[in-house]
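Quick review question:
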């Protein structure tokens, strides 16, 4: 195959090194679709007779059947999916089968197949993303009112609503979702017509090809199109961003489910036991998500490294885009599948959160109180700092210090101060947009729902509802 200009057979070692049929197989059904559209375009351009077209289409349909049933005879010596399909077609219908490659290059073909595959895969990814976002909204709504200690430097800082914490992840993942919708345009661009690098010399109707294959746009520049994998980089960036977020969420779930915290309990279905210690309940899913994020981040940097020194035009290095990308895609999809379920099943333990909430997390409120009495904040900070020191020394809570003791630190204190030593009062003071007050979080949830409605009008999110709801997971 393709040995016209060579006098020796290809070495087995070369095949070992250059061919990965498992990867090629993933593109096969898309390759048939690409071929079907392409031969119709050849016919429209007068490059195939009607009877040739019909014969080729019949052959391609048979090949599709063989691929689906698993009887397609894959041959490694044919290098890739494109040559395997072409050869099989010629076996079935004779020499005329070889006409399908008129004016075409594998360089544009592999890209077309890959983009078609991505359009399907991104439907699944966006389905998972929407489900996750819905779950975060539902949980925020369900648990609205539960108070937890918020942290800075992982030290107790100020009381927040548990739903404010949940919604912080919602907004993060929503940002990833918006990015996905933005870059989808690149995936939705038809490569066919780019030829090997210079464009196709036959009068093909590219708009027809785009319509046949469901692409919204045509690529602008043949050389850019066959040389670039920018759309994979962008997707890997989004996957990395999501996996980093899952990793951070995992880290928090691991801590929060630790008995020292007891903020949450992960369900039995999403935890494992120890082979030795009977009491253990281990958060393996969260740990593996934390670990797998490393592999997805690795894929992003691998893809950059793959591309950074390539000259214009197709280079065989580009074949490595697929193993890198497919693995990251697989891990991201799996993670997206498991997290919404795990979150839905986790038990939320209000008592555990309250237990860790020390009144010292209300120190800022106490300082604010003095500010409202007219003191500059820095001065108020210093006074409350001394009160905290005193309380620790005396083994007291802020609310068990008497007014008389308070007044020793500052004359401005009066009875009203105790009102500020209340968690609910504290968080409800933070009622600007984005804050942790109950009304602000409620507004966030409403805004979040509106965002979801906007999102499902955009591709790839809009595609999935054609195939039924995502909730089935
Ligand atoms: N297997 C190749 C890839 O994935 C397909 C394109 C091959 N083109 C070529 N000129 N050898 O990139």
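Suggested answer, residue by residue:
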């Amino acid at each position: 195959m393709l040995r016209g200009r060579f006098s020796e057979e290809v070495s087995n070692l070369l095949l070992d090194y250059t061919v990965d049929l498992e990867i090629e197989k993933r593109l096969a059904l898309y390759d048939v679709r690409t071929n079907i559209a392409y031969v119709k375009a050849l016919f429209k351009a007068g490059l195939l007779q009607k009877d040739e077209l019909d014969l080729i289409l019949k052959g391609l349909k048979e090949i599709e059947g063989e691929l689906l049933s698993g009887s397609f005879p894959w041959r490694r010596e044919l290098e890739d999916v494109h040559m395997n399909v072409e050869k099989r077609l010629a076996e079935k219908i004779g020499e005329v089968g070889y006409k399908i490659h008129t004016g075409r290059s594998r360089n544009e073909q592999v890209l077309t197949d890959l983009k078609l595959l991505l359009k399907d895969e991104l439907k699944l990814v966006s389905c998972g993303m929407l489900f996750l976002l819905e779950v975060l909204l539902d949980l925020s709504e369900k648990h609205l009112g539960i108070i937890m200690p918020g942290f800075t430097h992982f030290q107790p800082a100020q009381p927040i609503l548990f739903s404010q914490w949940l919604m912080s992840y919602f907004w993060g993942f929503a940002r990833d979702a918006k990015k996905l919708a933005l870059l989808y345009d690149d995936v939705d661009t038809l490569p066919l017509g780019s030829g090997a690098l210079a464009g196709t010399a036959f009068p093909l109707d590219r708009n027809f090809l785009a319509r046949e294959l469901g692409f919204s746009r045509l690529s602008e520049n043949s050389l850019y199109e066959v040389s670039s994998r920018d759309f994979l980089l962008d997707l890997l960036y989004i996957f990395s961003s999501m996996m980093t977020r899952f990793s951070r969420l995992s880290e928090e779930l691991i801590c929060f489910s630790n008995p020292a915290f007891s903020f949450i309990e992960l369900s039995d279905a999403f935890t494992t036991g120890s082979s030795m210690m009977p009491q253990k309940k281990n958060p393996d899913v969260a740990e593996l998500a934390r670990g797998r994020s490393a592999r997805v981040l690795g894929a992003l940097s691998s893809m950059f490294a793959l591309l950074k020194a390539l000259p214009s035009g197709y280079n065989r290095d580009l074949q490595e885009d697929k193993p890198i990308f497919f693995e990251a895609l697989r891990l991201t999809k799996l993670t997206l599948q498991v997290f919404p379920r795990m979150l839905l099943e986790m038990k939320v333990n209000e008592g555990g959160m309250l237990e860790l909430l020390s009144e010292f997390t209300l120190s800022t409120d106490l300082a604010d109180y003095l500010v409202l009495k007219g003191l500059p904040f820095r001065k108020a900070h210093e006074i409350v700092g001394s009160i905290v020191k005193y309380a620790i020394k005396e083994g007291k809570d802020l609310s068990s210090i008497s007014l008389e003791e308070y007044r020793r630190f500052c004359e401005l204190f009066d009875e009203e101060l105790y009102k500020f030593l209340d968690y609910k009062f504290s968080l409800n003071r933070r009622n600007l947009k984005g804050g942790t007050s109950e009304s602000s979080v409620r507004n966030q949830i409403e805004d979040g729902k509106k965002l979801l409605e906007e999102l499902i009008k955009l591709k790839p999110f809009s595609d999935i509802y054609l195939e039924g709801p995502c909730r089935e997971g």
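Why it works: The chain has 18 helices and six strands. The domain at 107-355+442-467 is CATH 1.20.200.10 (Fumarase C; Chain A, domain 2).
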